[in-house]
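INTERNAL AUDIT FORM
Audit reference: QA-55
Scope: verify that the stored structure record matches its stored sequence.
Auditor: D.O.
Record contents follow.
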Amino acid sequence: MYASLKRHSLWLGVLLVLVMGSTALAHDAFVPCPDPVGTHPAVPTDFTRLNYLFESFEGSVPPAGWSIMTSGVSTTWEQSSTMVHSGDWSAVVHYGPQGAMQDEWLVTPALDFTGAAALYLEFFEDQAYWDGYGLRHHLAVSTTVPDDPAAFTMVETWTPSDHTVNGFGGDPVVLNLSDYAGMTGVYFAFRYEGDWADDWFIDDVRIYEPSDYDLAALEARPHDHVDVGVMLVPVGLVKNVGLNTVSCNVRYEILVEDAVVYSNEVGIYLAPDTQTYVDFEPFTPDAEGVYYETVVTTLLDVDEDPSNDEARGGFNTYPLGHVPLAFLFTNSGCGPCVQANQGWDAYMAEHGDENQIALMRIHAWWPYAGDIMYVANSSQCTAYINEYGVNGVPDMWLDGLASFGTDTQGIIAAAEDARFDPSPMSVTPLFWNTATEQLTVEVDIQSTMPPGVDLRLVSCITEDGIEHNGGNGEPIHNQAFLYAYPDMDGTAIPSDIGTYTYTVDMPLNPLDDGTIPWEFANLRATCYVQDRGSADFRKIYETGTRFLTEIMDVTPVALSAFDLSSRPGAVDIAWESATELADFRLMRFVDGVGTQLAYATAGQGRYTAEDLLPEGGDAQYQLYGRQSGEDWMFLRSENVQVDPAVLVSRLDRCWPNPFNPKTTVRYTLAEAGPVQL
């Protein structure tokens, strides 16, 4: 799964010993939430095909007309709100005690398929402990009675070795049941078998007849990263989900910033219930830092369901190098969380101080309600828990999209590999102003972004070394999430290529309830850019993390003077550097938004700049410098109040003088009107 796993084999071997200290994971590898949270999609109602059955288990389990056959040795099918696909409820079988062999059946009503030419079953599923403990799940059918196991035939049997449960956030299970089309009195059953096994959740069960003509586009390849100058073969995956054989063209398009740069069509001939990969003419990306949007479109004139005619994707030529951000949802009284915390402690001790990876441990209210890292900021902790649908701890996520549940080994391996992933930008916490409690953050977008992104900058404070005993035996807590500024939705930022600098108001301990010490030496700024739009909702594109002590009030000896003088509508800036630096960056901040200013070299280590602010106001100026090939370092910051300009019609001097290849001509007008220069 991870291309670079071998290069980290030594580290992962150590991790394996730490995390997998026993021969098998215990069934209590997580603690479920006693009051499940999270928002879920509404139960779907806008189906385009004929439905013979649809059940979302919102009323009861078994629903009206359904029935249950049970072994009676332990739990059987019941209603659950812990994990759902839509609405508020699903159906679940929980595992029982050792030695209790469960055989639990959830049976549909009698179904009449008279007149149906074909049938499909679709349902969503989720699980706990399937990989390590699951035995068998089945779909069974009876054409006689619903209450005799001997009357049923197994249509499909799934085991952990041959079946991956996609989860409620993944694709549904789809089975072709056309052998029963035209029959009456048909019963289907979801059958669970296991001894001290797994939990099986199902939701949104649907049996339907396909359309006469329906050709679906399923996937556009490649996706993720490709190399500049290397020829690739575009591929589209299409499936005939209709009742009849189809013959038509399939189109593959590549777009850059909404402009089509490639288009090719290929003809296909496809029988019902079959799928095929379609190869198109080669394409060679020729520029670094580009996002290529891809669209596969089926062009069937008689298609009866246009909703599945397009599959969209994308690939990029972003430069490599990324700071991944992991969320660990935990609790100081959670026994199973100890294993996850210790795994992360070991990994962060090796990589965390190098700012190669970022981690936020977000504390929940269960099982120990007195967890001070939750109590200190319960509203924002709860907001994160709701956002990610966390219904058990520990629970782990990487870069906003990849869920790893309780798999500490898996997420750490993925995070290690993600450090070498492509990234369209960098995020750098530059400077902490202790006097104003403000953080200066730079977002440098170097590549084109996918269409539809809504980028947000979220700036957080975490703390290491918090002393607290919640009952699970861990007295010290690191990377504990304390606060998100302004909140977890962040501040909207542009998605165009460019360098953007922001001053974020980050008052330390804003709730000031005395629960958490907020020890300055242990505070870390973790800033991330996340998509809140339609392109890849919740994806975290890039992160930057630094201890505040690393970036606080630094004034290098290299700068010997930094002077600001204001006049109506303008500020003059000058500085001198006793030690020559390769480059400077002068920034002006108004209302927290930074603008980079041009400057001129006056010789002998002297530099000047003029900033026009006709409307006046309060502004902050920050100066940064760097040696060739090194990171920017903060040099100086000054605030100034500027009076509004007294506007008169005036032609100012040219800058530089007009004997240069180009010059800037400035003028002011006392009132609006036509001018001629």
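Auditor finding: record pair retrieved intact. Helices lie at 9-19, 130-133, 337-351, 372-375, 378-387, 408-418.
Action required: none
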